[in-house]
Structure formats: C-alpha cells, structure tokens
Amino acid sequence: MNPGVAITAEPGFENQARRLAQRLGLEYLDHHDPAPLFLLQFAKGRLQLQQTGDKAPGPVYVEFDQGKAAHRRRQGEGRKTPLARAAGMKAGFLPDVIDGTAGLGQDAFVLATLGCRVRLVEQSPVIHALLEDGLRRAAASSQTGEIISRMSLVLADTTEYLMALPAPARPDAIYLDPMYPHRGGKALSKKEMQSFRKLLGEDRNGPELLHIARQTAGKRVAVKRPRKAPFLGGQQADFQVFAPKTRFDVYLTAPPADSA
Ligand SMILES: C[S@@+](CC[C@H](N)C(=O)[O-])C[C@H]1O[C@@H](n2cnc3c(N)ncnc32)[C@H](O)[C@@H]1O
Fold first, then answer.
1. Residue to mutate (ligand 1; options 38, 62, 110, 122; most atoms within 8 A of CB)
2. 106 in ligand 1 pocket by Cβ < 6 Å?
3. pLDDT at residue 87 tops 70
C-alpha cells in the first residue's frame, strides 16, 4: 500500500506501533536499517511521519493545541475570514461541512473552531492515522476538546464516499483543498507539503472530486487554489474569495439567495 513507509517506536510504545503496523499493512522495524523513505514513529507522545535521509525536513504530525492552529484559535479568527466566507458561514447560519481532502485537518479545525460540524474524509491510511492521533490528543485537552467534538474522521476516497452518501446525510458545504501542482521556483514549500508530495504524489482526481461534490453539496462547494491558478478542471466558479496567499473558488449548488 505504502511501500516507502515503515513503522517504528520509542521504548514503551512498541505494542501500539505493532498494532498500527498490522492495521495499515506496513512493516514494523525494530532497527531501521536499511531505512525506507518514511518512518511512521511513535515518539514524544505522538504519532509522527519522518522522512529519512540527510536533508529530510522535520517530522510531520497533527497538532491542534499548539502552533498555527492554536494561534488561529486564540486570535479568534472570525466568520469573516476568507475560509469561513467561502464555506458559507454567516450570522445565524453554521453550515454542516464535509472536508473532502482532510490532510492534517488544519482547515477543518478552523471551521470547527467557528462552530461548524465537520466530517473529515482522508484517503491515505498514513495521513488518516496521523489525524486520528492528533484528534485523540486534542479531544483530551481542555483547550480544544469541545471543538474536536464537532469533528469526525472517515478513511475513504471522497469520490466514493460522496457517491454512497444517503440524501439525509448530505452536507450544506463541501470543502476541497487538493494538492497544488508542483511548480519549480526558489521558494520551498512547507515541510508538510514536501512530505505529502513524496508520500502521495500529485492529486490527479481533483476535477472528478469537484464534479461529484457539486452534485452532492446542499448549498455550495468551496475549492482552495493558488491565487493565480486556473479553475480546477476548468470548471468556472460562481464567485471567488481572496486571501493574501490563496483563493477560494465557490460553486453554488442551491438558488442564488445563498450567495452572500
Ligand atoms: C493539500 S492536503 C489538504 C490539507 C488540509 N486542507 C489541511 O488543512 O491540512 C490534500 C489531502 O487530500 C487528500 N485527498 C486527495 N484526494 C482525495 C480523495 N479523493 N479522497 C480523500 N482524500 C483525498 C490527500 O491524501 C491529502 O492528504
């Protein structure tokens, strides 16, 4: 499934690591030599993905209680932020959201912080395991437990998940953040993106995902894109919401009264 990933653990976490290795069909390593491209490690009280090799970036893990996600929560980023507006949040209305490209759950956490219920769907068993671990730790924290209670996690290909969704379970909004095509240039992408690209390759199913999402969302689909990128799959959006480094293309699936 992920031939370049193996699992290892600090002393005391070996059994947990063995169980995860069995569940994900990955190899458990007592001594990681020769090293695979990635190690999924139980270390520092969390599950983390560490790329191997001399110039490898630091570990990738899910953290809602520290760092950027916690900063956003403390700043009380409100309903007028571009992501919230793109998802259709407004006074008196909190959309029920499916995040169809969950990744490390950062965008979903912002929406849940603002009060939305968010179903996170992730196709990669390795990324799903990282998310599951981050959600478990954050659920136990007094700072984030209430927010996490609005988030649920699904391991699935979102296209298949949406196609099988019964009508009453359809969300108001579907949010998509497919991986951007890799562009050359001087700026190095964030360590998460570098590792994601190596682990998962490019997202090639974005246009199909958008097509199915537009048939499933009760009110709208929001797609995160680089500011100057073309529309995903050439599908023209109804309107766009711009942020300093990114842009959200919004596709309305309900009558225009909802477009504010
Ligand atoms: C750029 S990352 C999303 C980052 C996320 N918005 C965040 O805030 O952390 C894209 C993620 O979408 C997942 N993905 C792409 N296509 C998918 C699909 N069809 N079904 C489920 N997950 C998918 C990838 O595995 C990857 O983890």
1. 122
2. yes
3. yes
User: How much is the average pLDDT of 235-239?
Assistant: 97
Residue 3 has pLDDT above 70, yes or no: no
Centre of ligand 1 to C-alpha 179, Å, is 7
Angle between helices 125-139 and 191-200 (to 10 degrees): 140
pLDDT beyond 80 at 164:
yes
What is the model's pTM?
0.88
* pLDDT number for residue 118: 98
Task: Supply angle C-alpha 179, 184, 189, rounded to 5.
Answer: 50
Distance 184 CA to ligand 1 centre (A): 21
Q: Could you tell me the distance, in angstroms and rounded to a whole number, from the CA of residue 193 to the centre of ligand 1?
A: 11
Give kind and range of the element (H or E) at residue 138. helix 125-139
Q: What is the dihedral of CA 127, 129, 135, 136, to 10 degrees?
A: -170
Quick: pLDDT tens for 19-30. 999 999 998 987
To the nearest 10°, the Cα dihedral for 23, 27, 32, 33? -170
What domains are there in the chain, each with its CATH number? 5-51 (no CATH), 67-258 (3.40.50.150)
Atom 1, ligand 1: which residue's CA is nearest?
Answer: 179
- Cα of 105 from ligand 1 centre, angstroms: 9
Name the token pair of 104: 């490390």
195 lines ligand 1 (CB under 6 A): no
